TrEMBL record:
InterPro entries: Gfo/Idh/MocA-like_OxRdtase_N, Gfo/Idh/MocA_oxidrdct_glycsds, GFO_IDH_MocA-like_dom, NAD(P)-bd_dom_sf
Gene Ontology molecular function terms on file: nucleotide binding; oxidoreductase activity
Domain Gfo/Idh/MocA-like oxidoreductase N-terminal as annotated: residue spans: 5-123
Species in which this protein is naturally found: Kribbella turkmenica
Keyword Secreted: no
Protein name listed in UniProt: Gfo/Idh/MocA family oxidoreductase
Superkingdom of this protein's organism: Bacteria
Record keywords, A-Z: Oxidoreductase
Length: 387
């Protein structure tokens, strides 16, 4: 089988999640190409060597540009903070490498536009790209999209979406790149709000047309981290400013006329990774919560009124997307499986000569919504999303 050499840039939380995906995808799925975990790249030699040994990479590199000249690397996986996505992804596409880029696609609309243009030019040369909105690959989310596409909800009226975390609710939780606008572009809005923007558009097959939003930074100054890894760190003596939003809320109107209410926060004490989506249509409703991610709740308004009610569907059967490759029916999947499904779909699209989704154009669409929410929070006006 033909090898697909992978060069992964970044080895913190997302780098580890992607490594796990590259490792397990060929072991559970029949892939048309063989992903080789060729090089792990990061700036600090000792740390990248330790991560490569732990995560299963063959070699290490400290300069990502060196990966682009290697014939044994066909795909660059970008798991760096948002401020380097555009530079790395565009250079990789121009060098003829397929690209998987973490979300949000970029820090600004301008960067996302340049990345989308590069992706479209590369696609004409058979080079593929995908943005990592991994929650699309949760089986219950796939089922939700299918139910909407099959017309089981009728006309969509309401979209209610929340992404709730609490990892910086403590005002003494230290600063990290996710709290730095230069590095991350925005705070809760781009980091987790981007996921629910993408998910609701994916499930409904609709697009957000206009928004009215508010951003808030509750804790404006925090300890600088003495050390930091993933989402956790230890506080040093110095203090520094938080330059992003802690929470974002917005109202949305979809192209079809459906109304949306969105909330993304890192201050929802007790909520750890709660992606809650509820969709009401003229014929029925759906409800999902990632903290119980194997379940989809479905209300079929056509059922007998005496016994109708939300049905609890365990999306763990081989009839559900991706599930058949894993365990016998009824055995649950977790956070990391979405990352594995993501690379399965990417590798399959590369082998088929097809454009994978979510594309960079899909990432740009989300970026435009993020920018519009920010603009609305500043101007206190509704903002239209350029389509
Ligand atoms: C932190 O909020 C974070 O790691 C996000 O960056 C990821 O996209 C999400 O999957 C989990 O939470």
């Amino acid at each position: 089988m033909t090898n697909l050499g992978i060069g992964l840039i970044g080895y913190a939380f997302m780098g580890a999640a992607h490594s796990q995906a590259w490792r397990s995808a060929p072991r559970f799925f029949d892939l048309p190409l063989n992903p080789e975990m060729t090089v792990l790249c990061g700036r600090t030699p000792d740390a990248v060597a330790a991560a490569a040994a732990k995560l299963g990479w063959q070699e290490t590199e400290t300069d990502w540009r060196k990966l682009l000249g290697r014939d044994d690397i066909q795909l660059i996986d970008v798991c760096t903070p948002g401020d380097s996505h555009a530079e790395i992804a565009i250079a990789a596409l121009e060098a003829g490498k397929h690209v998987l880029c973490e979300k949000p696609l970029a820090n600004t609309v301008e960067e996302a536009e340049a990345m989308t243009a590069a992706a479209e030019a590369a696609a004409a040369r058979g080079i593929r790209s995908m943005v990592g909105f991994t929650y699309r690959r949760v089986p219950a989310i796939g089922l939700a999209r299918q139910l909407v596409a099959d017309g089981r909800l009728g006309t969509i009226r309401h979209v209610r979406a929340q992404y709730l975390q609490d990892w910086i609710a403590d005002p003494e939780a230290p600063l990290s790149w996710r709290l730095d606008k230069e590095k991350a572009g925005s705070g809760a809005l781009g980091d987790i709000g981007a996921h629910i923007i993408d998910l609701t558009q994916y499930i409904t097959g609709d697009r957000i047309a206009e928004v009215s939003g508010q951003l808030e930074t509750f804790v404006k100054e925090r300890p600088v981290a003495a050390e930091h890894s993933g989402l956790a760190g230890t506080a040093g003596a110095e203090r520094g400013p938080v330059t992003v939003d802690d929470a974002a809320v917005f109202l949305a109107k979809f192209g079809s006329g459906a109304l949306g209410v969105f909330e993304a926060t890192r201050f929802a004490t007790g909520r750890k990774n709660a992606i809650r989506i509820e969709i009401n249509g003229s014929l029925g409703s759906l409800a999902f919560d990632f903290e119980d991610m194997n379940l989809l709740h479905f209300y079929d308004g056509g059922e007998d009124a005496a016994t109708a009610g939300f049905r609890r569907i365990l999306a763990t059967e081989s009839a559900h997307p991706y599930v058949g490759a894993w365990w016998p029916p009824g055995h649950l999947l977790g956070y990391e499986h979405g990352f594995t499904h993501q690379v399965v779909d990417l590798v399959t699209a590369i082998a088929d000569g097809a454009d994978p989704t979510p594309s960079f154009a899909d990432g740009l669409r989300v970026q435009r919504v993020l920018a519009a929410v920010e603009a609305s929070s500043t101007s206190r006006q509704w903002q239209e999303i350029p389509q």
